[in-house]
Amino acid sequence: MHMHIESRTMKEGAMQWVQAVPADFNGVPPQPRSGHTAVRVGRSMVVVFGGLVDKKFLSDIVVFDTENNIWFKPECTGNESDGQVGPCPRAFHVAVAIDCHMFIFSGRFGRKRLGDFWMLDTDIWQWTELSGYGDLPPPRDFAAGAAVGNRKIVMHGGWDGTKWLSDVYILDTMSLEWTQLPITGSSPPPRCGHTATMVEKRLLIFGGRGGGGPIMGDLWALKGLFEEGRERVSSMDPTEASWPSTCSSLWSYNYLWRYSALLSIQLLVFGGHGTAGWLTRYDIYYNDCIILDRASVQWKRLAVSNEPPPARAYHSMTRIGSRFLLFGGYDGKSTFGDIWWLVPEDDPMAKRALLSPRSRLSAVESTVQTQDSASVDVKETKQEHFTPLGEMRMRLGLSTMAASTAELNIVDESSDTELLALASTLVSRDGDKTTERSILVKALRDYWNNSTAVSIRLCELGPLLRDYHRLICQLQGHSLLEPVGFHHESSNSEMQMHRFYHLKNANQLRMSDIPDLLNEYKQLLYLSSVTSSSEPEQGFDLGLL
Questions:
Q1: CA–CA separation, 119 vs 505, rounded Å?
Q2: Distance CA 328, CA 269 (A)
Q3: Distance in angstroms (rounded) separating the CA atoms of residues 513 and 511
């Protein structure tokens, strides 16, 4: 398994995951897939090619224009393969970009390993099947490759259907000559599904599945690619760069980036597929971020300040400036079509939601309360009085009623008397005597949007939670939390829904939930403001949003 790998420079600091929303893009994003490639071509394009979904191999090209924030499908011309323009459908192939050209090699179509070689000229969107000469590499899938300067491509390993490979090939893209690189001395064991990344003048090989099926976590460096004399492949001392014990079986995707503050290059690993168990082995998928600091030769976790995307492998992740764009993947059951950004905490996008689409609540389910459910709610109320937060509210003389009609039948903000009373107190504190409800609600929302978790008083939690519910329902009512094409129906990313929507009242909150609740609330405010400002012509009635 492979994917595009990037190097970058940025200041040291925490990162944050943000799920993409319709307002981030124009055009139609790619359909769900895994085993695809997404490479940065030129200065302003990310080209997604191929992949696999529901046992169907893909051959489409979908391009993200980073300057105009638009997805589009170019009409390509050129050589035909099996009656279609361009390469045949495939997944688990190698894609490498040099200047305005994207080179495609190898991959799998059904049970067939491929050995054809293609080039896409993105200036004119023309495919050309290339006929190389020299030491032609045999067909394979799950190989790994990278650009060497602005002229050559290096490819390593893979699986040919009968054995794991450890060969290294160099392609001169000007002469189209393939050369098998002789390796002396120590070299990595044969493998597939690994990554290959150029760092300075070395090719770093990491992870993969090896002979006999073990999943690896070793790191190797190939030197001499820019020199006439070839040096041997040398291994980094496993005692110096050993993989963390919690991730020792990771079958990973990884990316490179630079920390300008440290002046060192770090290897970033997100997600991947591994195995666990002792007597019985089973698959496990990851969603953590690990970095290797080459200065200290130590693995450590990347500082990420919020919840990551669902675990996955066979995904792509592409650098766009200081951001990373994560797309697609597979978790053993579902193929993903979601899009995520990994951004620095000071990025404007970090202020908004990790919003995951959830199924729209039907009007009947969200507004009808039967007598039976009401009786159950009374029992829940009694139990909730004895939660730590409920008991604290009782001692302070605050309301502890649960499952009120206002909480189950999500009312308009103009009818939420507790919210309006709280807003009036806030506004009067600033010397404003207004009683206009829209101004009161906006003032309260602005106040919460600029608040920290420690500044939220207990008496604010009830109105805050109800407004949280209200914002979700208003956005869902206009299908604004169901971005078409971002999620596959079988995607388990719906597990990353709004975590507090099911809570009927603030007594069910734990004190440790307040920061996350406030963060999600701010994200909802951001989404509603972005959507209302970007689509004024749609005539959406978002009330006070």
A1: 59
A2: 16
A3: 5
CB environment 504-524: b (16+ within 10 A), e (fewer): bbbbbbeeebbebbbbbbbbb
Paired tokens of 159: 């699986």
pLDDT on residue 254: 35
Task: Supply the DSSP symbol for 530.
Answer: H
State if pTM tops 0.70: no
Residue given tokens 């693995």 in the structure block: 299
Owner of token pair 């030491």 = 135
Residue 33: helix, strand or coil by DSSP?
coil
* Sheet of 316-320, strand order: 15-19, 339-344, 323-327, 316-320
513 falls in which pLDDT band (50, 70, 90)?
confident
Least confident stretch, 136-145, 359-368, 386-395? 359-368
Residue type, 412: D
- On whether the CB atoms of residues 247 and 190 are closer than 8 A, the answer is no
Determine the Cα–Cα distance for residues 519 and 534; give it in Å rounded to an integer.
22
Cα separation, 170 vs 176, whole angstroms: 10
Distance in angstroms (rounded) separating the CA atoms of residues 369 and 59: 50
Q: Describe the chain by its helix, strand, coil percentages, rounded to 5.
A: 25, 35, 45
* Predicted confidence (pLDDT) per residue in 116-144, tens digit: 999 999 999 999 999 889 999 999 999 99
